[in-house]
Amino acid sequence: MSSKCRPKVIAITSGKGGVGKTNVVANLAVSFAMMGKKVFVLDADLGLGNLDILLGLAPRFTLAHVLNGVKKIDDVIVNGPKGIRILPAASGIQELTHLGTEEKVNLFGQIESLGDSIDIMLIDTAAGISQNVLFFNMVSNEIIVVASPEPTSVIDAYALMKVLHLRHGEKRFKLLVNFAKNKSEGLEVYKNLSMVAGRYLNISIDYLGFIPLDENLPKAVREQKAIVEIFPDSKSAKAFNDMAKVVDDFPPSEPKDNIQFFVGRGAGNSAGMQV
Predict the structure, then answer these.
(1) So where are the chain's domains?
(2) Which one, of 89, 207, 218, 200, lies nearest residue 146 by Cα?
(3) Is the pLDDT of residue 270 over 80?
(4) pLDDT confidence of 193, banded at 50, 70, 90?
(5) DSSP labels for 87-100?
(6) How far apart are CA 143 and CA 108, in angstroms?
(7) What is the dihedral sign for C-alpha 28, 251, 89, 76?
(8) d(Cα 254, Cα 256) in Å, to the nearest integer?
């Protein structure tokens, strides 16, 4: 990699499914691209990937072909709206739900080779606290936890942060509240999470804001388009665009103790791959 600024690597994750996480990834990616950023998206929901479906893409190959050594990463990446590049995950392949060290090293090395062509890398993790989810969060510079106002979503978001903190020493999280009725509801989710985390964990949670409920969101999903592209004047589209500006302004993060993408550590450090 050249001496230019290293790409920002941001994991977008959630404690439970159904909170619109992949939709957040798709719309932030397109928003970044509309800002002139070179965006690479890794669909890291390795057994149930659906980012390509959400954006109306039909990839011939998937990450499974890369991990199996059948294809190189450049053969698998597909172009999405506004020039974003996506490494699609496989769907329905159970053996990919727990990557081994060799597979992690292979994936890590191939993605590292793309560094000069990336400004921002978004990782769409699976939901929950599986080993894959923990791994992709820990190799990122920043972790954005997506939660909805539902109590189960808030509880599971806390559980994810708790595991990442207690097992892997993660102390910094960003929170994005999706499907909030208004500003007050979004803030209420943040306050509840912060209160519990402050009482039981030594972590910091930064509130990024909320994406409002919007009747145009299900329309965009049915059209297999990002809402920022098909309904640019909608409430949600404006919120996604504002969120992208906030994320783009994140200051450079301090390297973590474990291995990370694009920080100059060797991809072959298998000890760092035991996440």
Answers:
(1) 8-251
(2) 207
(3) no
(4) very high
(5) EPPPBS-GGGGS--
(6) 18
(7) positive
(8) 6
Give the single-character DSSP code of 113: T
CATH of 8-251, one of 3.90.25.10, 3.40.30.10, 3.40.50.1110, 3.40.50.300: 3.40.50.300
Q: Per-residue DSSP letters for 213-252?
A: --THHHHHHHHTS-HHHHSTTSHHHHHHHHHHHHHHTPPP
pLDDT in tens, 26-85: 999 999 999 999 999 999 988 677 899 999 999 999 988 988 889 999 999 999 999 999
Distances (CA, A) of 267 to 97, 195, 263, 271: 21, 38, 10, 10
* Cβ atoms 265, 272 nearer than 8 A: yes
pTM over 0.70: yes
